């Protein structure tokens, strides 16, 4: 592991980028040098609240993906697993939960990581697009349509308006009123995706620069290659920058632990499951739950002759037994649940118990398989 500060030497990318445009420049290098067939990233559809995943094959189109989109909690791992074959070489930008999901898919042989460059994005959390608009209207007294960019920095959610003005509100104040980051983001304690080849962000960076943590040999070659072709400028961060980045990460983790303590005791799983209508939305949206055709829940012994889905307890029990130790806490299952069941919270709650027994964290631990699938299971 090593650190560099980096920024683009392309003026257009530099002006469009969030903090120096280093990520966009690295992606451009990969496409222009034909090291990948395409790039998976996010870009706005109608506005910054409606970003969507795109597959880019022409580096001229990368400029549209520059910047951060905290109102776009879209996961990309399941898209890659379903639609990209093992021979296609790609690069993908990943939040920590994206990376955790993809790591789990790699160890299940669903994604060939030899052909993937993982470009990590440090993440303080994401905001629901709908509540994000309401939040800006209520707390910033601004028209959500006038917002051209947003970022989370120094404990604040900051928006930039079309007239160049900036407004900031403390995340704590927003979340105390039920707004701010999504619930799973508030309790997430993985803020830097260190399983990615590089992890990038503005924590600890000088203005106009991206702080990059290089975590693999592939990551080092990425930075060196982009620098060699003249699209990236780098320098070594000083000790204060490294310390500042670590301080921000530790503050975010401390906030997450506090939120975990506040939320976990309040959940009674049996009461929550009773509302389940068996729509399978949580299963279908999960980036790690991939075996739809052979899903246990589709087996004949779960059918009762009327072709009704299994009972809520059976359905959720099967999912818990299969997925709770693999949950990356992305929160999408909770986002799509029509009955407002805190699915993600319950899964994460159980995974924390699993961690206490085994030390294994899904998508973070470097073990090839979780202990449940290893010889150690006999000791459990």
From TrEMBL:
PANTHER family: 7-HYDROXYMETHYL CHLOROPHYLL A REDUCTASE, CHLOROPLASTIC, FORMATE DEHYDROGENASE SUBUNIT BETA. PROSITE patterns: 4FE4S_FER_1, 4FE4S_FER_2. InterPro entries: 4Fe4S_Fe-S-bd (IPR017896), 4Fe4S_Fe_S_CS (IPR017900), Co_F420_Hydgase/DH_bsu_N (IPR007516), FRHB/FDHB/HCAR-like (IPR045220), FrhB_FdhB_C (IPR007525), Helical_ferredxn (IPR009051). Residues 266-288, 318-348 form the 4Fe-4S ferredoxin-type domain. SUPFAM superfamilies: alpha-helical ferredoxin (SSF46548). Gene3D superfamilies: Alpha-helical ferredoxin. The keyword Zinc applies. GO terms for molecular function: formate dehydrogenase (coenzyme F420) activity; iron-sulfur cluster binding; metal ion binding; oxidoreductase activity, acting on CH or CH2 groups, with an iron-sulfur protein as acceptor. Belongs to the FrhB family. This is formate dehydrogenase (coenzyme F420).
């Amino acid at each position: 592991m090593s650190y560099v500060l980096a920024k683009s030497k392309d003026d257009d990318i530099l002006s469009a980028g969030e903090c120096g445009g280093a990520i966009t420049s690295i992606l451009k290098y990969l496409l222009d040098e034909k090291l990948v067939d395409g790039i998976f990233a996010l870009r706005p559809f109608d506005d910054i609240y409606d970003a969507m995943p795109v597959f880019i094959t022409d580096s001229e189109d990368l400029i549209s993906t520059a910047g951060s989109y905290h109102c776009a909690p879209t996961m990309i791992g399941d898209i890659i697993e379903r639609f990209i074959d093992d021979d296609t070489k790609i690069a993908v930008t990943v939040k920590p939960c994206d990376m955790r999901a993809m790591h789990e898919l790699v160890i299940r042989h669903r994604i060939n990581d030899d052909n993937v460059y993982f470009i990590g994005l440090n993440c303080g959390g994401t905001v629901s697009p709908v509540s994000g608009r309401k939040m800006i209207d209520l707390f910033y007294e601004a028209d959500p349509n006038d917002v051209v960019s947003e970022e989370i920095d120094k404990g604040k959610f900051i928006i930039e308006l079309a007239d160049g003005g900036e407004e900031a509100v403390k995340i704590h104040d927003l979340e105390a009123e039920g707004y701010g980051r999504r619930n799973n983001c508030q309790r997430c304690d993985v803020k830097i995706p260190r399983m990615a080849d590089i992890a990038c962000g503005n924590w600890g960076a000088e203005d106009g620069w991206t702080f990059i943590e290089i975590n693999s040999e592939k990551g080092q070659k990425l930075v060196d290659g982009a620098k060699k072709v003249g699209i990236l400028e780098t320098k070594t961060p000083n000790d204060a920058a490294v310390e500042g980045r670590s301080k921000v990460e530790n503050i975010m983790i401390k906030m997450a632990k506090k939120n975990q303590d506040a939320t976990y005791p309040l959940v009674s799983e049996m009461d929550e499951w009773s509302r389940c209508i068996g729509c399978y939305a949580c299963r279908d949206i999960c980036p790690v739950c991939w075996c739809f055709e052979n899903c246990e829940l589709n087996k004949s012994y779960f059918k009762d002759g009327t072709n009704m889905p299994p009972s809520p307890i059976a359905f959720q029990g099967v999912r818990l037994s299969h997925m709770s130790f693999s949950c990356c806490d992305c929160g999408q299952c909770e986002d799509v649940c029509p009955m407002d069941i805190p699915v993600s919270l319950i899964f994460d709650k159980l995974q924390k118990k699993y961690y206490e027994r085994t030390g294994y964290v899904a998508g973070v631990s470097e073990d090839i398989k979780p202990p449940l699938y290893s010889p150690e299971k006999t000791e459990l």
